[in-house]
Amino acid sequence: ILNQNIADLKGDLNVSFEFFPPTSEAMEDTLWQSIDRLKTLKPKFVSVTYGANSGTRDRTHSVIKEIKDRTGLVAAPHLTCIDASKDELKQIALDYWNSGIKNIVALRGDIPAGSDKPHMYATDLVRLLKEQADFDISVAAYPEVHPEAKNAQADLLAFKDKMDAGADRAITQFFFDVESYLRFRDRCAAIGITQEIVPGILPVSNYKTLVKFSKLCNVKVPGWMHKLYDGTDNDPTTRNLIGASIAMDMVKVLGQEGVKDFHFYTLNRSELSYAICHTLGLRP
Ligand code: FAD
Q1: CA angle 172, 19, 229 (to 5 degrees)
Q2: Which residues have CB under 6 Å of ligand 1?
Q3: pTM for the complete prediction?
Q4: Which keywords does this chain's UniProt record carry (predicted)?
């Protein structure tokens, strides 16, 4: 398997990179260095996450505009329904459209703890966006089931509705169990979802944080990963190499299973995502 090349994919390969709005000057420098390096791989689009408070919202907007102006890349802001009225969402959508931003990652967002306000689902946001203009829309998918879903079947049916509302593709929550992605993709196909289910690849550099975060997201961290990272708490270099190696193995298997689109959760760093794309056959 190791010697089997998947570089033949090259022609049809699409990658996208996700960033978050930086909160300090140092972080801003890192972000731009990363964008400058990753843009050479000609991503299909790059996206910028959207936080739950208005400060981060404005930053998403300004980072997206800057990426578009400075690099000419297709830049897709994430947009959530949390704490925004339908009118506000319509206005945000129109502002994006009028400034030439036509790709959006549409999400519900996480409900703030203790909130019992009625809320929209991502499906409602997809419909609202499509009513404003013909946006290219990505939505979220959960191969290992969204933590709030009643069960896997209910989650899948809600996901089908969201795709039918007008999504162009779905990007998955990160995962490490490739089988869970492949089974999910099969179940999507079986109920008639035809859009691409793009695997979200998280190259892991901070293992301890990952373990905590994965629990919240209902993502399995397999036992073999615990063994691999064991003893690396104070060794970031080794952790990075392990993270890259795991993701390289994953994309290789996914490529062999016919996956041609990959989304990378870069955490604003370029090294690991760049190296993983290189092993997929991508060159500047
Ligand atoms: P939905 O698709 O609305 O689903 C939420 C839950 O509701 C699921 O359990 C679903 O089964 C259920 N459901 C859906 N429709 C119905 C219905 N009609 N009746 C009953 N139940 C229903 N969060 C951010 O805050 N900012 C970001 O930038 C961000 N980016 C993300 C990017 C990706 C690729 C992914 C995978 C997630 C991202 N998130 C982000 C996290 C996301 O906001 C949370 O996972 C959130 O809890 C769910 O959002 P959703 O769009 O998947 O919701």
Answers
A1: 70
A2: 49-50, 52, 78, 80, 105, 107-110, 121-123, 140, 146, 148-149, 154-155, 158, 162, 171, 173, 200
A3: 0.96
A4: Amino-acid biosynthesis, FAD, Flavoprotein, Methionine biosynthesis, NAD, Oxidoreductase
